[in-house]
Amino acid sequence: VRLENELREAQANDEWRLYYQPQVDQAGRCIGVEGLLRWQHPERGLVSPGVFIPLLETTELINPVGDWVLETACRQLAQWAHHPAFAELSVAVNVSPLQFRQVDFVAKVEAILQRTQAPCHKLKLEVTESLFLEERDDARDKMLRLKQKGVRFSLDDFGTGYSSLAYLAHLPLDQLKIDQSFVQQVIHSKANAAIVESTIALAQSLSLEVIAEGVERDDQQAWLLTHGCRTYQGYRYGRPMPLDALEAMLSAES
Ligand code: G
Ligand code: G
Ligand code: MN
Ligand code: NA
């Protein structure tokens, strides 16, 4: 209950932070970032979302916090749009199924895009398979309406859910994101390698982009490149970091 009350105060106390983790192409150039929520707690320090996202979801605080994440990401996109070194970056944000299922979710995103003047096609929403277990047609309808604005969709944690693959044919996705649990074992586990290979092939045959997350080592990237995956995210390229650290890193590179 204490944690719950503190979470309710976090917004007013300005304790939310959006960290950014690079997403790179095969040459190692940063082409985008994933925004990852952190809670800067006065005593606990920087708290990771694994601890509080479940609580945000059971208390429905996920909706206002999710709004904050979207607004922050879009404001960043709008700022970067005027800066030659950052103008091409996309920003991906995680959207919880509860958040996506709000009746006014599409209107909220449209209002944020309008208010911030963010370039819509640089915003990528990361959704998970669990979103499509229920009310699939509603999810599809919302995705189509946002895609009309140019917003893009990535399927996060691909391969870790329990749903059938049939939904893939019906949803307007742009990207599959190979879960880090497969990527980390890709060199040493034939089964994981087979899963990653099949995912890359599936993405190619459905004309979807594919990104591997959790890439930590050169040998993993080399394996992925050999097997046709050309976009990566992971500690190998950078941890989730505050905005100033990201901008410093990118400025030093260019
Ligand atoms: O950044 P980290 O690896 O600690 O994230 C842990 C989990 O929290 C991941 O599953 C990630 O998708 C989730 N997460 C991070 N930021 C957000 C956010 O802004 N919204 C939601 N719904 N989940 C997030
Ligand atoms: O569920 P989602 O994919 O949104 O979560 C991303 C999570 O993975 C974040 O908590 C992030 O900190 C973590 N992460 C990102 N890159 C790596 C990596 O290379 N190795 C490990 N172990 N975790 C990573
Ligand atoms: Mn994610
Ligand atoms: Na993931």
From TrEMBL:
Q: Where is the EAL domain?
A: 1-254
Q: Could you name the domain of life of the organism this protein comes from?
A: Bacteria
What protein is this chain from? Answer: EAL domain-containing protein
